[in-house]
From TrEMBL:
CDD domains: LysM (cd00118). SUPFAM superfamilies: LysM domain (SSF54106). Residues 95-144 form the LysM domain. This is Potassium binding protein Kbp. One of its GO terms (cellular component) is cytoplasm. Gene3D superfamilies: 3.30.1340.30, LysM domain (3.10.350.10). PROSITE patterns: BON (PS50914), LYSM (PS51782). NCBIfam families: PRK11198.1. InterPro entries: Bact_Kbp, BON_dom, LysM, LysM_dom_sf.
């Protein structure tokens, strides 16, 4: 289990998510995970200040990482406390990269793989969180598969 850091000022704004005492925060997060296309995984969330704690079980490392990114790439979330277990085969975790001003998937691909044409590998690894290769933003955290 680990604590992942995110850029607090970046990401989608969910109304009242981080309002102290918001009794609906957990449900809002679950709806957000479903809305970005990750279905309704067997996870539970809790908000403590600017930190989201997520527990439960998922089928794969990839699903786990995408859920963590969906929860962390929300405006106002500074960290996600990962307490998710994976029931499927154990595979190496992907690396994560924070998008900087002026970055493109091609530029990130060149930096991590040495080949700008591998950008589609990053795009596919971040579906359904990304709808188009050109729609990334500064502060967003992306999965980088091996």
């Amino acid at each position: 289990m680990s604590l992942l850091s995110f850029v607090k000022e970046a990401g989608e704004k969910l109304i009242d998510l981080l309002t102290p005492g918001n009794a609906n925060a957990s449900e809002q997060l679950k709806e957000h995970v479903a809305k970005v296309g990750l279905g309704n995984p067997n996870v539970q969330t809790k908000v403590e200040g600017d930190k989201v704690i997520v527990t439960g079980e998922v089928a794969s490392q990839e699903e786990k990482e995408k859920i963590l990114l969906a929860l962390g790439n929300i405006k106002g979330v500074a960290s996600v406390d990962d307490q998710i277990t994976v029931s499927g085969p154990v595979v190496a975790a992907a690396r994560f990269v924070v998008v900087k001003e002026g970055d493109t998937l091609s530029a990130i691909s060149l930096a991590v793989y040495g080949n700008a044409n591998q950008y589609n590998k990053i795009f596919e690894a971040n579906k359904p969180l990304l709808s188009h290769p050109d729609k990334i933003y500064p502060g967003q955290t992306l999965r980088i598969p091996e």
